[in-house]
Amino acid sequence: MSPGDALEQFSQGNPAPVYLIVGDDATEMAETANAFEELIEEGLRPFNVDRFDGGDDKVTLGTVIEAARMFPMMAPRRVVIVQRAKDCLMPKRDSQAAEKDQEAFEAYLSEPQPHATLVLVAGNLDKRRRLVKSLFAAAVVVTCGVVESLEDAEQWVCRRVAASGPTIAPAAAQLLAASTGPDLGRLRGDVERLLLFAAGQSAIEVDDVREIAGPVTMHDDWAVARAIERGQADLALRELALAVESGAAPV
Questions:
Q1: Which stretches of the chain are DSSP H helices?
Q2: In whole angstroms, what is the distance from residue 4 CA to residue 26 CA?
Q3: Counting beta carbons within 10 angstroms of the beta carbon of residue 22, is it exposed (0 to 12), middle (13 to 18) or buried (19 or more)?
Q4: Paired residues of 78 in beta bridges
Q5: pLDDT 10s digits, 116-135
Q6: What local confidence, expressed as pLDDT, does residue 69 receive?
Q7: Which of 54, 127, 226, 247 is deepest in the core (most CB within 10 A)?
Q8: Where exactly are the structural domains of the chain?
Q9: Looking at the domain 3-144, which fold is it?
Q10: CB 25 within 8 A of CB 127
Q11: What is the dihedral of CA 4, 187, 190, 2, to 10 degrees?
C-alpha cells in the first residue's frame, strides 16, 4: 500500500490495527509516520499519541505493547509510533527478556487492540525471521521510496508536493518526473528546489518546473536512444517530447 492510501484509510475511520512502514526512503518514511500523528486532533495528541525510538535501549517490544493497550482519552483511537522499529524487532543481543517480548508481540499481532493503531517504521527487515514473517502477515505494509518507473516518479512528486501544501498540475508533475527520471535522489533535490522557487504559491504549473529544471537539465541527447534500447517505449516518447519542448529539432 502507498503512504497516501494508508493515510486515507486511517482518515476515513477504517484504520488497520498495525501499519508497517518499509522502504529505502527514510525521509518519506518519517513523514508518513508523522502524518499518522497529525490525523489525531491536535489538542488530544498528548493523551492519545505515543512516540518511541526503537534505537533507545530502554524501548522494548514490551514497552510498545503496553502503550498500545492503554485506552484513548476523549477520542476513539490512540496511535503508537515506533521509529527505528527494526532495532527492537531484531535486537542485536539475544536474551530471555527479548525472547519473551517477541513472544508477547506475536500474541499481540494475533489479537491487536481495537482502539489502537500501531505504526512501525522499520526500513528493511530480514523476512526469514519468524517474528518478521508474523508481522508482514498481520500488518498493512506501507512501502516508501519505490521509484522504478516514470509513473512511480510522477506519483512520488505529487505526494511530496502535496505534503508541503500546494497542488501541482498533472502536466507539471509529469514534466518534472520525465526530466529527472526514476532516480529518487535527483527527484528529491528537484522537488525541494521547485518548492523553494514556488514558495507562497497555492499551485505549481508547468512553467514553474521549466524555471527550476531549465533546458540543459531537461534535455539529454541520448535519453531517447537509451530508452529505446531498454524497450521502454513510454519513456522514449516522453524524452522525445521533452527534447522538442527544450528546443531540439526532430531528426
A1: 3-11, 26-38, 45-48, 61-69, 86-89, 96-110, 130-138, 150-164, 170-180, 184-197, 206-218, 223-229, 233-245
A2: 16
A3: buried
A4: 116
A5: 999 999 878 888 888 889 99
A6: 93
A7: 54
A8: 3-144, 150-245
A9: Rossmann fold (3.40.50)
A10: no
A11: 0
Single pTM value for the model: 0.67
Neighbours of 145 (CB within 10 A): 18
Specify the amino acid at residue 227.
Answer: A
User: How does pLDDT run across 155-193, given as a tens digit for each residue?
Assistant: 888 888 887 889 999 999 988 988 887 877 788 888 888
Question: What whole-number distance in Å separates Cα of residue 158 and Cα of residue 152?
Answer: 10
More confident residue, 241 or 39: 39
Beta bridge partners of 231: none
Residue corresponding to grid cell 486515507:
8
- pLDDT greater than 90 at residue 70: yes
First to last CA, the chain: 43
Residue with cell 531537461: 218
Tens of pLDDT along 87-124? 888 877 777 888 888 899 999 999 999 899 999 998 78
Q: Which CATH architecture has domain 150-245?
A: Orthogonal Bundle (1.10)
- Residue 53, classed as helix, strand or coil, is strand
Nearest to 82 by CA among 160, 139, 146: 139
pLDDT digit string, tens, across residues 193-216: 899 888 889 999 999 998 887 543
Alpha-carbon distance of 38 to 32, in angstroms, equals 10
Phi, psi for residue 143 in degrees, rounded to 5: -100, 125
- What grid cell was written down for 169? 498540475
Name the one residue in this structure whose C-alpha cell is 512511480. 152
Q: How many CA atoms lie within 13 A of 111 on its CB side?
A: 4
